[in-house]
Amino acid sequence: MKPYINKNISSLRPSATLAINEKSQALMDSGKEVIRLGFGQSPFPVPTVVTKALQANAHQKDYLPVKGLLKLRETVATYHQRKFGLNCTAEDVLIGPGSKELLFITQLIYKGALLLPQPSWVSYAPQAELTSKQHYWLPTTSRNDYMLDAQTLDKHCEKWGIQQGILILNYPSNPTGSTFKKKALKEISAVARKHRILILSDEIYGDVHHNGKHESIAKYYPEGTIVSSGLSKWCGAGGWRLGTFVFPKALRWLVNQMAVVASETFTTTSAPIQYAAVRAYQGGKSIDTYLAGSRQVLGIIAQEVYRLLKKYKIPTPKPKGGFYLMPDFSNHKVSLNSRGIQTSVQLCDQLLADTGVALLPLEAFGYSPEVLGARLSYVDFDGAKALKIIKKNPDATAKELAPKVIKGIRSIGDWLK
User: Fold this and answer.
1) What is the pLDDT of residue 125?
2) Residue 277 host element (H or E)
């Protein structure tokens, strides 16, 4: 039968992050050594207290409420009260099978255009296309570590006549590793309030801010901010697929409408995972120790990778959180062009073929093809082993913690020569 596909779907390709993961795995299965700096999965094990909670609740088999287990929603609300001083209750929390699904349903329901800082995570814009939502790219510059500033937001809202819409902010940022200062959060909040923009604040990397100093924009724009998070990054549980949304009280109608859509799509999130997530969000000494070790390990590796890239004349914003860097290869444009490399896709394909180092092309993050840049995810290391090393020796080097990552960065430098 002839393919008969909706126009807004036919042009989409598989998620770039998942595609590079599968491509890397296929090369490894064929016997080739691959250094996986393309896929952004936490290298750390799920905390022991949380895995024990999952084991203890493996028998939970009943369908849970569409909005999520009440005990979990209460615990998530308490967590956000404790961390950021948010005035929220269980009624303001929605649980989903990963924050990606909740992001999609928000775009499906909420009227107005989507505003995306450039660069942005690979799935925001494709989801807009899936929901036939108009989306605009907001430019950023290296002077500001590629983070959106309030003046740019205000200017473009005036230019495009935006008086309602969704602005997605992701920080610490995927792909740059940068984050916002308090002053910038206050200024962006004022502009969003002026233009009646809903901010969807994707703070999934908040708990892996390298200095533990993440601050939510919801503190400054509580009436218009949804805080998105989940277990995948800070708790090392990407495959568990559990996401959380915390809404302002004025958007209870949106919570209810999203629950209606959820009831007709994913129904509810896995019961054992939700029960285990209660323990994760309760925190405590063991969770705090786990997070402190994770932040320290990531910070050490990030600074060494940053130093090496700078040495190879590959500028990138100085990393502040998460586990990403955004290397800019434009200083090597003449040399790369002479080798037939004209686009970020060609850059990453050739690098993988020649060295076995996998990066993600910047084209996937909202840039035009000819921008010679990539996203680098410095997570190809044994997280459990690294946590043990850093516990014994707080002065451990990046090479001790993540030898494969450092080898990969040196391979990039040699390849450019």
Assistant:
1) 92
2) helix 271-282
Exposure string (b/e) for 322-352, b if CB count within 10 Å is 16 or more? bbbbbbbbeebeeebeeeebebbbbbbeebb
Q: Where are the alpha helices (DSSP H) in 85-149?
A: 99-109, 124-130
Residues in the chain, total: 417
Cα(200)–Cα(186) distance, integer angstroms: 15
Answer yes or no: is pLDDT of 12 > 70.
no
Contact 222, 249 (CB under 8 A): no
Tell me the pLDDT tens digit for each residue of 297-324: 999 999 999 999 999 999 999 999 999 9
What the chain holds in terms of domains, given with CATH numbers, is 7-45+286-416 (3.90.1150.10), 48-283 (3.40.640.10)
22 pLDDT band, cuts 50/70/90, is confident
State pLDDT tens for residues 81-132. Answer: 998 889 999 999 999 999 999 999 999 999 999 999 999 999 999 999 999 8
**Cα separations in angstroms, 359 against 299, 351, 355, 389:** 20, 8, 11, 27
Residue with tokens 């450092």: 406
Contact between residue 93 and residue 73 where contact means Cβ atoms under 8 Å apart: yes
Tokens 């990054």: give the residue. Answer: 233
Please tell me the chain's helix, strand, coil percentages from 3-state DSSP, rounded to the nearest 5: 50, 10, 35
| Residue keyed to tokens 């913690």 | 401
